[in-house]
Every structure is written in structure tokens, then in C-alpha cells.
Amino acid sequence: MGSASKDTSATRKERIEEMRRAEQARERRNRFLVITGSVVAVAALVAGGVFVVKSQSKDDGAADGKSSASGSAAGKFTTGADGVRTWKGKLGRTHVAKRVEYPTEPPVGGDHNQVWMNCDGDVYTKAVDNMNAVHSLEHGAVWVTYNSKAAKADVEALAAKVEKTPYTLMSPDGDQAEPIVLTAWGHQRTVTGASDPNVGKFFEKFVQGAQTPEPGAACTGGLSQ
Q: Region Disordered: start and end of each range (predicted)?
């Protein structure tokens, strides 16, 4: 009788030990699953964060348009025998919203606003935004700019020429160094006045000239003052 009781007690202990071992094994398995799941979740978050950062960086480069001289227009001028300065290097053509820092004044090209300045012989009495005017250059326009050093008679004569010439525009530019500057996409020169024969030569060569990135694109339907 005592022996049977001992056997029953031993069997119960063995069963309890088995249950305990099974419970411990289950706990170890659960801990492993929890740890594994946490590692996977963290890895997914890290990967997602990297993807978002890369995507934002890519978007920032294309859409934000925070361009600089090294990004939008990297290069330098070379001056030809005819006095025309030609930009040697990169001229970006991306439509951007944020300000672009152009390396020249007036600029000869680079990333720009998606809306152009009307350039169908338009004469503006106030300074225009460089980012809109550069878009006009992309369409093949010649941009005449002048500062306070330009003679009033020259300004009036140039305005009359511009008004008669499609794919041209004219505006004051207080930031330029020379009194009168003629600009086309990738090309620029100064002139001594309205009677300078280089005015006609520049117009003839560069109004819808071979340098035009988008020949035939509209010079109306854009922005006007």
C-alpha cells in the first residue's frame, strides 16, 4: 500500500516536472518569437526610414529647386572675337519653385520657374523675376536689360526696337554691372547704346536662334506685369 502511494507520488512529480519543462520550453519559444518579431519590426522601421529619406532627398533635388551656381548653372564665360560671351558648362532646365542662385546677372540660363515672362515684344518698366525671364530665354527670346547708367534716349530707342520684335523682352535690372546688356540662352554681350550695330547683330543671330532649347515655344500666355 505504501509502495503504491510512493509510485503515485513519483509519477505525479514526474508529470509536474514534464509540465514545468514544457512550460519553460514554451516560455523560451515565446521569448524568441518576441525578440525576433521586435528585431524584424525595428529593421522594417529603419528600412522604411531610409527609403523615406532617400525619396525626400530625390524629391528635394528635383522639385524643391534649391539650386546653386554649381547645380543650376555651372561653368564660365568665354568671349568670342565678336564680343559675345558664351557660357561653357552646364545650364539646368528643370522647372523649380524655390529660389535659384544664378552665377551671372542677368542670368543666361539654368533651372527656372515653370511660368515664362511674356516675350512677344514686351517692354517692362519694372524689374522682372530672373526665374521667369530665364524661361523666356529657353523659348528663344532675347532679353534686353539696363540699369540707371543707361541714357534715357537709348532706353527709349531699345524699347521701340523690342516692341517691333517678337521673341524679345526688355526690363530694368539694377543689379547688373553694365548699363545695357543683351542676353539669350547661353549667350550675352554688352552694347554701348541703341545705335550700336551689335544690337542688330545680336537680335538677328539669337532671336529664335540655334541656341534655343525649345524653338517655337510660346512667348505669350505667360506672366506679365
A: 1-25, 57-79
